[in-house]
C-alpha cells in the first residue's frame, strides 16, 4: 500500500486510491456531506469560478512559502484542520499528522474526538497543535477538556460553533456509522470485502475516542450542542489564557460580534459542507467577512480546499492562513505516512507554481 504514494499527483488521486482501500462505511464517513451534497458542490463551483491572474516578466526565481501565524513562523500557509477519528483512515494517522505539523511548523488541529490522546499529539507535534473544542450537553464535560488541554500545554483553543446539532449526512446514515465505533452484520460484510484495511486495523486495535477514556465522562456524538450561546463564549474567554479561535463562521455580522467579544481569530468554514446543505459557499463568505472585520484581524479558512491553487485563491480572498482536511485523510488511506507526505509536497508544489505564474515571490 505504501507504493501507492508514488501515484498521488493530486488530491483527486488520493481520493480515488483511498476509495479502493477503505470500507464503504469509512470512505463515506470521511467523504460525505450534508443532504444531497449540493452544498459541497456549491462551494467547489465557487472555488473553481475564482481565477488567478498571470503576470509576466517578473523575477520569481526565489520564492518562499513561509508565513506567520500568531506571531510564530510557519513554513507553509496551510495547516491541518481538526478531524475526528483519523485513525480509521490508517492506524497511527493522528501521529502522522502531528509529525508533519512539527516538520513544517504549522498548526495541527486536534479534534475533541481524536483517536489519540491530546497529550500525546501535542508532544509528537512539538507544540504545533491546537485543541478543537465542541460544546456538548450542559458543558460540564466540555470545560473539563479545556482544563486538560491547558495542562497539556496547548496555547490555542479552537471553539467549533457550527454544530448545534449533528448534520444529516445520508451516506453516513445508510451505513450505520456510529461513534464509538461499532460493528454489526452489515459492517462485518463491508470489512470482509476490504481485507487489507480490515487486517491492518485488526492488528492495531479498534479506534477509540481517546480523549474520553481519561476525562471522567462519556461522549455522545449525537448529543445536542444547542445550549452554547454568547455567555458560553464569554465564560470560555475568561478561562482560556491563550489564543481563542472561533471556527464555523459564515456570517459577517457574527464575525464582527466575535471580534468585539475579544476572540483572537475567526475561522471561516462550513465544516466541509457536512452541516447545512443550503449554507453559502464559504469562499464567498470569506471576502464579506474580511470586509466586516477589517484588514488586520486574523482570519483563517477551511472547507473544500483541494490544491495549492485553492490556497492562493483563499489567501487572495482575505484569509491569513488556510487548513486542509479530508484530502489529507485520503492520502493516508491511500499510502500511509508516505502518501501524506506526498500529497503535502503536491500542495506545496502547486502553490509555488501558482505563485510563480502570478508574479509572487512571497506571502507576507
What does it look like?
Helix 6 links the parallel strand 5 and strand 6. The protein is globular, with a radius of gyration of 20 Å. The strands form two sheets. Strands 3-10-9-8-7-6-5-4 form an eight-stranded parallel beta sheet. With 364 residues, the protein is α/β, with parallel strands linked by helices. It contains 14 helices and ten strands. One of its GO terms (cellular component) is plasma membrane. Residues 3-364 form the FMN hydroxy acid dehydrogenase domain. Belongs to the FMN-dependent alpha-hydroxy acid dehydrogenase family. GO terms for molecular function: FMN binding; L-lactate dehydrogenase (NAD+) activity.
Structure summary:
The active site is at 271 (proton acceptor). By secondary structure, this protein is an alpha/beta fold. The chain has 14 helices and ten strands.
Per CATH, the architecture is Alpha-Beta Barrel
CATH superfamily name? Answer: Aldolase class I
Q: Name the poorly predicted regions.
A: none
Q: For the report, how would you describe the main beta sheet?
A: 8 strands, parallel
Q: Briefly note the CATH topology name.
A: TIM Barrel
Please name the defining characteristics of this protein.
364 residues, alpha/beta, TIM Barrel, 8-stranded parallel β-sheet, two-stranded antiparallel sheet, 10 strands, 43% helix, 12% strand
Which SSEs are present, and which pair or pack?
Layout: H1 11-21, H2 24-31, H3 38-49, E1 67-69, E2 72-74, E3 78-80, H4 93-104, E4 108-110, H5 118-124, E5 129-134, H6 140-152, E6 156-160, H7 170-174, H8 185-192, H9 195-204, H10 230-239, E7 243-249, H11 252-260, E8 265-268, H12 282-293, E9 299-302, H13 308-316, E10 321-324, H14 326-357
Parallel strand pairs: 3-10, 4-5, 5-6, 6-7, 7-8, 8-9, 9-10
Antiparallel strand pairs: 1-2
Helix pairs in contact: 1-14, 4-5, 4-14, 11-12, 13-14
Amino acid at each position: 500500500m505504501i507504493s501507492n504514494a508514488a501515484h498521488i499527483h493530486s488530491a483527486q488521486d488520493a481520493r480515488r486510491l483511498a476509495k479502493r482501500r477503505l470500507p464503504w462505511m469509512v470512505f463515506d464517513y470521511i467523504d460525505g456531506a450534508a443532504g444531497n451534497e449540493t452544498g459541497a458542490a456549491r462551494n467547489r463551483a465557487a472555488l473553481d469560478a475564482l481565477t488567478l491572474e498571470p503576470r509576466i516578466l517578473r523575477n520569481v526565481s526565489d520564492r518562499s512559502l513561509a508565513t506567520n501565524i500568531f506571531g510564530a513562523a510557519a513554513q507553509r500557509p496551510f495547516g491541518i484542520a481538526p478531524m475526528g477519528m483519523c485513525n480509521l483512515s490508517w492506524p497511527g494517522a493522528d501521529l502522522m499528522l502531528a509529525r508533519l505539523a512539527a516538520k513544517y511548523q504549522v498548526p495541527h488541529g486536534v479534534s475533541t474526538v481524536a483517536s489519540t490522546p491530546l497529550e500525546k499529539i501535542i508532544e509528537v507535534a512539538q507544540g504545533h497543535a491546537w485543541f478543537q473544542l465542541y460544546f456538548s450537553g450542559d458543558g460540564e464535560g466540555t470545560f473539563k477538556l479545556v482544563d486538560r488541554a491547558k495542562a497539556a500545554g496547548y496555547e490555542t483553543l479552537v471553539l467549533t460553533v457550527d454544530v448545534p446539532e449533528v448534520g444529516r449526512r445520508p451516506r453516513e446514515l445508510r451505513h450505520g456509522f456510529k461513534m464509538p465505533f461499532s460493528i454489526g452484520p452489515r459492517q462485518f460484510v463491508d470489512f470482509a470485502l476490504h481485507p487489507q484495511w480490515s487486517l491492518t486495523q485488526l492488528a492495531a486495535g479498534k479506534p477509540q475516542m481517546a480523549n474520553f477514556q481519561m476525562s471522567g465522562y462519556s461522549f455522545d456524538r449525537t448529543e445536542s450542542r444547542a445550549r452554547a450561546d454568547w455567555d458560553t463564549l464569554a465564560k470560555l474567554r475568561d478561562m482560556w489564557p491563550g489564543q481563542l479561535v472561533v471556527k464555523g463562521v459564515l456570517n459577517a455580522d457574527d464575525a464582527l460580534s466575535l471580534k468585539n467579544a475579544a476572540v483572537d481569530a475567526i475561522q471561516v468554514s462550513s465544516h466541509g459542507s457536512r452541516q447545512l446543505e443550503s449554507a453559502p459557499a464559504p469562499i464567498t463568505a470569506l471576502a464579506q467577512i474580511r470586509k466586516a472585520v477589517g484588514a488586520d484581524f486574523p482570519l483563517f479558512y477551511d472547507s473544500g480546499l483541494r490544491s495549492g491553487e485553492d490556497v492562493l485563491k483563499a489567501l487572495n480572498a482575505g484569509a491569513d492562513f488556510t487548513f486542509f482536511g479530508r484530502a489529507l485523510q485520503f492520502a493516508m488511506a491511500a499510502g500511509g505516512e508516505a502518501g501524506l507526505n506526498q500529497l503535502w509536497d503536491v500542495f506545496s508544489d502547486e502553490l509555488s507554481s501558482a505563485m510563480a505564474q502570478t508574479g509572487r515571490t512571497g506571502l507576507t
